[in-house]
Amino acid sequence: MHVTFSPEELAFREEVRAFFRDEMPDDIRQLRESGAELRPEAQVRWQQLLHKKGWAGVNWPVEHGGTGWTPVQKYIFATEEANANAPVIVPFGLSMVGPVPAPISMVTITSSTAPRPGPPLANSQTGSFASSERIRMSRGVRRALASCSSI
Q: At the topology level of CATH, where does 7-146 sit?
């Protein structure tokens, strides 16, 4: 398949490449090159760097702290992430579970701590999903969960 990027997409690709080249800590780069497993502390540190750049919530809507990237930008990011052998964002929290509640409006996420920059879950300051947040479910969701006695 041949992909042709617009000038804006090419500029974005260069920005992503430069980030992975210049911002990935040497110890994390060396661990990735050696094939060793990243310790949780290193994974958290990497996600904090992505968050600082505003790139932690790749699949999140902008209004909930996401990047607002187009599918092409997400493709470019994922390709450059792989080319740089960078650690991927822990998939279960920010990539898979996090984006689900916002569009379907079934779960309201509120911070249980003092206000911080960015929305509670997409800000990934601790590197884990909902670590210091509580999830308040709507009455309909609570009723639906309560009716699932086999779970």
A: Butyryl-Coa Dehydrogenase, subunit A; domain 1 (1.10.540)
Domain boundaries, the chain: 7-146
Cα–Cα distance for residue pair 107/105, rounded to 1 Å: 6
Instruction: Compute the chain's Rg from CA coordinates.
Output: 18
* Inter-residue contact 107 to 84 (CB < 8 Å): no
Structure confidence by residue, pLDDT tens digits, 54-107: 998 888 888 878 899 999 999 999 999 999 999 988 766 665 665 555 554 444
Q: What is the CA 130 to chain-centroid distance, rounded?
A: 12
Place of tokens 């493709």: 75
Would you say how long the chain is, in residues?
A: 151
Cα–Cα nearest to 66, from 58, 76, 75: 58
Task: Report helix, strand and coil shares of the chain as percent, to nearest 5.
Answer: 50, 5, 45
To the question of pTM greater than 0.90 for the whole model, the response is: no
